[in-house]
Design brief:
Elements: H1 3-24, H2 29-96
Helix pairs in contact: 1-2
């Protein structure tokens, strides 16, 4: 299951629970509507924060993966360069003998 689906499900559940809780509470219609609006806005802010955290985590992970790939390419380039240099040295010694 994808993390984004879990977060969305949790946020939707929180919003639905808050609305049901407010509707079941003994308050006037005006108070109930205000509570619904307030809790919905809170749920939206919470969802935005969770989404931003998810995106930030994804970006950080992608940057880490990119740096790891760059390091591996650099290491491989150095190894190939060393091998080529060694082979050329071996060939030079063979030519001189």
């Amino acid at each position: 299951m994808r993390t984004s689906n879990v977060i969305l499900g949790i946020a939707a559940g929180m919003a639905a629970g808050a609305i049901i809780g407010v509707l079941m509470a003994p308050s006037s219609g005006d108070d109930t509507r205000k509570k619904i609006v307030s809790r919905t806005q809170d749920a939206v802010v919470d969802l935005k924060n969770r989404f931003n955290a998810l995106v930030d985590g994804f970006v950080d992970h992608q940057e880490d993966m990119l740096q790891t790939a760059k390091n591996k390419v650099t290491d491989l380039t150095n190894k190939v360069s060393d091998k080529v240099t060694d082979k050329m040295s071996d060939m030079g010694r063979k030519v001189n003998t």
